[in-house]
Write a structure and sequence with these properties.
The chain has nine helices and 14 strands. Strands 1, 4, 5, 6, 7, 8, 9 and 14 form an eight-stranded mixed sheet that branches. Strands 11-12-10-13 form a four-stranded antiparallel sheet. The chain has helices at residues 2-5, 84-97, 125-144, 150-162, 223-228, 236-256, 259-278, 289-305, 328-339; strands at residues 17-32, 37-38, 42-43, 47-65, 73-78, 81-82, 107-115, 176-179, 193-195, 208-212, 310-312, 319-323, 348-352, 358-359. The longest helix has 21 residues, at 236-256. 44% of the residues are buried. By secondary structure, it is of the alpha+beta class. Helices cover 35% and strands 23% of the residues. α3 (125-144) packs across α4 and α6 runs antiparallel to α7. The chain has two domains: 2-199, Ribosomal Protein S5, domain 2 (2-Layer Sandwich), CATH 3.30.230; 205-352, 2-Layer Sandwich (Alpha-Beta Plaits). The radius of gyration is 20 Å and the shape is globular.
Length: 360
């Protein structure tokens, strides 16, 4: 796999090449969760996600390539301000991808990024950020080697983004992406995300995701630390068996449109994710009191109204409400009248299943 993604240097590279690239790339919300990694960003279990459309990172990259440049340099600006602390983390990413992007040894970069949603709060901002940056880097590679195919372009972008944030590899495609080798999809891989190849039922093609911002602060425990705690987790083997079962069921559901089964799997996966956090050693809790308040209100509303709304969570306190488009107006009213009081300043974001990044 490493050899496949190595940069194939061409002898006709133009010297002193300068240019820019700009991409928007979305966050994603996992329906089947992965928790735990091995080696470098290899998942312990496969995962499956909806690609979103409005929670995005905008990235503009300016580059200068020259064989006279002997030391890779970059600067990162977030929301118009240089962020040295982000650069430290980003440097780890660049060191990981250098074996596959040898042209970085002769490049100077300036990266400018903005988000449409809060970072480090349980919405996958790292997923959208690393995927957007990786797509821009692939534009550089395309400039240096125009022979690469579109398929290779996006597959390697997913591969690179995974080395920054595992879930980022699921943001390159859409509307449904699988990451992690499994027995259901033969083209699945631990190294990059693959588009869900079965026919997607119409009801899921414009599915809604309203993100209730319970807590906008940075998480007390990072996802990286949480993943590491799965290595010796007492329930790890049982969790892997559960994922295999839920992934098989979910793949059928996404094709047959059985929303009741969809709800059961999605909520079970969300609660299991946080159960694994609460039973790790050391244990920790990312849920907030208002997270639980919202969950109980959702259950009450679904029981009394017959609604098909359900919730899921990433590694944080914020709630994602998933529901079909024919319930949009009713769920908006439910959020405003009942749930917004449990949100930080009453804030929530309306999003929808999307179809992947866009080049600007």
């Amino acid at each position: 796999m490493a050899d496949f993604f190595e940069f194939k240097n061409k002898t006709n590279i133009k010297e002193n090449l300068e240019g820019s690239s700009a991409w928007t790339s979305p966050s994603n919300i996992a329906l089947i969760k992965y928790w735990g990694k091995k080696d470098i960003q290899i998942p312990k279990n496969p995962s499956l996600s909806f690609t979103l459309s409005k929670c995005i990172t905008n990235c503009k990259l300016k580059f200068k390539f020259s064989s006279l440049i002997k030391e890779f340099k970059f600067q990162l600006y977030f929301e118009g301000k240089r962020e040295v602390s982000f650069e430290t983390k980003m440097n780890v990413f660049f060191q990981r991808i250098k074996p596959y992007c040898s042209f970085l040894n002769n490049v100077e970069l300036i990266l400018e990024t903005t988000n449409t949603f809060p970072h480090s709060s349980g919405i996958a901002s790292s997923a959208s950020a690393y995927s957007a940056i990786s797509l821009c880097l692939m534009d550089i590679e395309k400039s240096l080697n125009p022979t690469i195919s579109n398929e290779f372009f996006f597959k390697k972008a997913s591969f690179l983004s995974r080395l920054g944030s595992g879930s980022a590899c699921r943001s390159i495609l859409g509307p449904v992406v699988i990451w992690g080798k499994n027995n259901i999809f033969h083209d699945s891989s631990n190294h990059y995300g693959s588009r869900f190849s079965n026919e997607l039922h119409d009801i899921f093609k414009n599915y809604n995701d309203s993100i209730l911002l319970v807590d906008k602060a940075q998480k007390q425990v990072s996802s990286s630390v949480g993943h590491d705690l799965m290595n010796d987790h007492f329930f790890s083997k049982n969790r892997l068996s559960q994922v295999d079962s839920n992934l098989t069921l979910m793949c059928d559901v996404l094709s047959n449109g059985n929303i009741d089964q969809f709800i059961k799997i999605v909520e079970l996966e969300a609660l299991t994710l946080h159960a694994m956090m609460m039973t790790s050693n050391p244990y920790f809790i990312l849920l907030k009191p208002n997270t639980l308040n919202i969950i109980n209100k959702v259950w009450d509303y679904r029981k009394s109204s017959g609604s098909k709304v359900c919730f899921t969570l990433d590694a944080g306190a914020n709630i994602h409400l998933l529901y079909p488009n024919n319930e949009y107006d009713k769920i908006q009213s439910f959020i405003k009248k009942t749930l917004s009081v449990f949100c930080y300043n009453g804030e929530f974001i309306n999003d929808q299943v999307g179809y992947g990044p866009n080049k600007l």
